[in-house]
């Protein structure tokens, strides 16, 4: 019986260690308000220039949900301001929180003409 109790303690300690490590990773993530005080709006396309993002960082898109949206797109969709592909992740709350994946993450507003007016960003996360 004593050996079983010791094994259970080892498992609990290991699980606690995993939880601590996971929380340290989350606590290390930064939160960015896209467009700073202006929010997600026209001419936001250069907002990410000079910023150093990491995978796990969070982008907060604040905007008028009756006039805009946020759509995760491919590099080609970003460049062409193309209609999002079927199945693209579309955000419509007006206060969307998006966690960055490693690599370049592309976002546009899919309302006609808005992407062409600079409502798009590319954020590269290391």
UniProtKB/TrEMBL annotation:
Q: Which residues form the Phytocyanin domain?
A: 30-126
UniProt GO molecular function: electron transfer activity; metal ion binding
What InterPro entries does the entry give? BlueCu_1_BS (IPR028871), Cupredoxin (IPR008972), Phytocyanin-like (IPR039391), Phytocyanin_dom (IPR003245), Plantacyanin (IPR041844)
CDD domains in the record = Plantacyanin
Q: Where is the signal peptide?
A: 1-29
Nuclease among the record's keywords? no
Keywords, ordered alphabetically: Copper, Disulfide bond, Metal-binding, Signal
User: Does the record's keyword annotation contain Cell membrane?
Assistant: no
Protein name per its UniProtKB record? Plantacyanin
The organism encoding this protein is Lolium multiflorum (Italian ryegrass)
Q: Which Pfam families match?
A: Cu_bind_like
What Gene Ontology cellular-component terms does the record carry? Answer: plasma membrane
